[in-house]
Queue: 4 jobs
Job 1
Amino acid sequence: QVQLVESGGGLVQAGDSLKLSCTASEHIFSTAAMGWFRQAPGKEREFVAVISWSGRKTYYKESVRGRFTISRDNAKSTQYLQMNSLKPEDTAVYYCAAARAAHENSWYSGEDEFNYWGQGTQVTVSS
């Protein structure tokens, strides 16, 4: 059974940093593009960032580019989202997701392209 388990959420002030982690079952992680999505209260879930299976390709939502960094450690079957200069509008439940990748450098940004999802971790940024 594939499992994605997020951790690292919390309550911080604007300008602070947080680092989210997501550990996946090894058999899916090794050939999956890994992504982060978020859902704010009353809004639809949206794409945040993605990293290819190889780790060489990344892509970000425009509003987080330059503040957030996605990375992965394939030996630990874990991906990360380093979030700096957090803003109140970053408040949301953050979800880890895995997509079966066609190629080691493939990446995806659509929800329907991701096959597995974590349970989510709350990030709250106060002003």
Job 2
Amino acid sequence: QVQLVQSGGGLVQSGESLRLSCTVSGNTFSGYYAILWFRQAPGKEREAISCISVTDSNTHYINSVKGRFTVSSDNAKNTVYLQMDSLNAEDTALYYCALSYISPRAPCVNGLTLQNFWGQGTQVTVSS
């Protein structure tokens, strides 16, 4: 069974940074997958904000985080990171990572179709 364990998050001031981690354990079978990052703010729908393919490290960001957030992977540690800089109050949300099996050279956004496993979620709160 595949498990995703998240760490990081917390309370920061506007303009500060945080790094979230998502560590994958278990048998991922083919090894071809993407890690997607989602967030859900109070009273809002969950939104996908970024993703990375662990096969070729192609990435994607939504406009509201582009230039401020950076997703990366350390395949030796089976861990994906979401570095979040210049945080603002609108970034306050519960953040989740999810694993989606995709084809070897597919764009990571293909993982939006179906997520196979989810992390437990971690809270990010940005005070203004």
Job 3
Amino acid sequence: QVQLVESGGGLVQPGGSLTLSCAASESISGINIMGWYRQAPGNQRELVATITSAGTTNYADSVKGRFTISRDNAKNTVYLLMSSLKPEDTAVYYCNLQWWYRNYWGQGTQVTVSS
């Protein structure tokens, strides 16, 4: 069972930046998709960004131009660089791995954007 461990959440002021990291507990080989989702209180979990094993990226319209997803396959790690943060970006951010027809989730990390 693959485990995903997130880090990097916290409190940041509007307009600030934050980087999230998510490391898989074992080597991820072959075709797979890693990504980030978020869930704000009272809302459904929504896609933020994904990146395939080949490096193809996909972003939600709400974060395009502000967030950048990347991965280091040697470290089995995916990153989310968040810039120009807004209060509406406040949510619990979850790491996700789609691999061999299974869906894996991290425990979530809180991101709060507030002055």
Job 4
Amino acid sequence: QVQLVESGGGLVQAGGSLRLSCGLSGSIFSFNAMGWYRQAPGKQREWVADITKGGRTNYADSVKGRFTISRDNAKNTIYLQMNSLKLEDTAVYYCAADSRLRYWGKGTLVTVSS
């Protein structure tokens, strides 16, 4: 059974940085892509960034230039480095892994304060 476990969320001031991690119970290369999504209070879940099996990265316009997705193949872990955080980045961040199905982690809360 595929399990994804996020960590690294917390409270940070606007302009600060956080790094999220997502550990996968299996090989990253079993999946076509892995990514990060977020859901702010009262809003729908939205895509943030992903990284393909081949290593190509993609970002939502709202985070481009501020967030960086990366992976450590040996640790079967992906990361989301978040810099220049804004109040509107406050959300629960979810890790996802795509094969024929999409698998989700349980999320980690990021709160950006003024």
